TrEMBL record:
It comes from the Bacteria. The keyword Coiled coil applies. Residues 93-141 form a coiled coil. This is KfrA N-terminal DNA-binding domain-containing protein. Keywords: Coiled coil.
Length: 165
C-alpha cells in the first residue's frame, strides 16, 4: 500500500471530521448505521485506516485515522450517556426493547391475575357443588321417613331471591 501525502491525509481528516459531525447529528444515510464503517464509506477512506497496524518487527503502531475513530467512539458514547441516540435505527431498537419489557411485565401481571381468578372460580364452583349436594341430601332426608320435619311455610314471607329448587 502506498503512503499518502500530508496534504491528502489532512484532506481525508477534514472529510472524516465533517462526516463524523453529520453522523453524530443524526444524518444517517438510508440503510446505514452510526458506526466506523459508515464513517469511512461516507468520508471516502478505507476502514482499515481507523484500526492499529503492525510494523514489520511485529510492534503495534496506530492507524493513520485511529485517533479519529477513538474520538468518534468517545463522542458517540457521550451522546448515549446523555440519552441522545443519533442513529434512528438504534433509537427505534431501544424504544422497542423498552416496549417489549413493559409488555412482558403487563403479561406477567395478567397471568398472575388470571391465575387468581381461575383459583377463585374453582373454589366458587366447589362451594356451589357442595351446597347443591347438601340441599339434595336434606331433601332426601325430608322425603324419607325419619324424625326430620319440614318447617311450616310462612304465608307472608317469601324468599328474597327466589326458590332454591
Amino acid at each position: 500500500m502506498a503512503r499518502i501525502s500530508d496534504e491528502t491525509r489532512r484532506d481525508n481528516e477534514a472529510a472524516i471530521r465533517h462526516v463524523m459531525d453529520r453522523l453524530l447529528a443524526g444524518e444517517i444515510p438510508a440503510g446505514s448505521k452510526c458506526d466506523i464503517k459508515t464513517l469511512a464509506a461516507q468520508a471516502g477512506v478505507t476502514r482499515t485506516g481507523f484500526y492499529p497496524k503492525k510494523n514489520r518487527d511485529g510492534s503495534p503502531r496506530p492507524g493513520p485515522y485511529q485517533h479519529l475513530a477513538e474520538e468518534f467512539e468517545r463522542r458517540l458514547a457521550e451522546l448515549r450517556e446523555t440519552g441522545v441516540i443519533p442513529d434512528p435505527r438504534a433509537a427505534q431498537i431501544e424504544r422497542l426493547k423498552e416496549q417489549v419489557s413493559g409488555l412482558k411485565e403487563r403479561l406477567a401481571a395478567r397471568d398472575e391475575q388470571i391465575g387468581g381468578l381461575t383459583d377463585f372460580r374453582e373454589r366458587a364452583l366447589s362451594q356451589i357443588a357442595a351446597q347443591r349436594m347438601e340441599i339434595e341430601r336434606l331433601r332426601d332426608a325430608l322425603a324419607a321417613p325419619s324424625n326430620v320435619r319440614a318447617l311450616p311455610n310462612s304465608s307472608r314471607a317469601s324468599a328474597p331471591y327466589g326458590s332454591c329448587s
